[in-house]
Known about the structure:
The chain has helices at residues 25-33, 35-38; strands at 3-9, 14-19, 49-54, 61-66, 76-79. The protein is α+β, with helices and mostly antiparallel strands and 82 residues long. The longest helix is centred in the middle third of the chain and has 9 residues, at 25-33. The two termini are 23 Å apart. The mean pLDDT is 84.
Amino acid sequence: MPITSVTKEPEKLSLTVVADFPVPRKRLWAAWADPRQLERFWGPPFAPATFTHHDFRTGGRAEYFLSGPTARSGPIPGSSPR
């Protein structure tokens, strides 16, 4: 993911990641909404993501894990912006 900035707000339990993608906005939005497409670019190349839950609605929740060559992470929760 071509990240341009990261803002951490621990007191709010918030992490904002800004990235630039060389594709049309409509294409990126479609990929973000579809967990199978999202898996293709979410997470580092050495530990790809697998989404087990992905509710793309406002306030919805997502859950995924990362699989590396020697280990697999536990479920990682997240939520969509409100």
